Amino acid sequence: MAAILEVNNLGISFGGLHAVDNFHVTINQGELYGLIGPNGAGKTTIFNLLTGVYKPDEGIIRLDGQDITGRKTIDINKAGVARTFQNIRLFHQISVLDNVKVGLHNRYSYSTVTGIFRLPGYRRTERLMDEKAMELLKVFDLDTSAEILASNLPYGKQRKLEIARALATDPKLLLLDEPAAGMNPNETAELMETIRFVREHFGITILLIEHDMKLVSGICERLSVLNFGKILCEGETSEVLHDPEVIKAYLGE
Amino acid sequence: MTRMKNRKLRSNLITYGIVIAAFIAVQALQSAGRLSSLMAGLLVPLCVYVVLAVSLNLVVGISGELSLGHAGFMCVGAFTSAFFTNLVKDTITISGLRFFLAILIGAAFAGIFGLLIGIPVLRLRGDYLAIVTLAFGEIIKNIMNLFYIGKDSAGYHMSLKDQFSMGMEPTGKMIISGPMGITGTPKDASFLAGVILILVTLYIVLHLIDSRDGRAIMAIRDNRIAAESVGLNVMKFKLMAFTVSAGLAGAAGALYAHNLATLQAKKFDYNTSILTLVFVVLGGIGNIRGSVIAAVVLTALPEMLRGLSNYRMLIYSIVLIVMMIFNWAPKVLEWRERHLGRFFRRGREEVM
Amino acid sequence: MSFLSYLINGISLGSVYAIIALGYTMVYGIARMLNFAHGDVIMVGGYAAFTCSMTLGISPVLSILAAVVVCTLLGVVIETIAYRPLLEAASPLAVLITAIGVSYFLQNAVLLIFGSNPKSFQSLISIPDLKLADGALNISGETIVTIISCIVIMVVLTLFVNKTKMGQAMLAVSEDKGAAQLSGINVNGTIALTFAIGSGLAAIAGVLLCSSYPSLSPYTGAMPGIKAFVAAVFGGIGSIPGAFLGGILLGVIEIMAKGYISTQLSDAIVFGVLIIVLLVKPSGLLGKKIQEKV
Question: In degrees, to the nearest 5, what angle opens at C-alpha B10 toward C-alphas B5 and B11?
Answer without folding.
Answer: 100
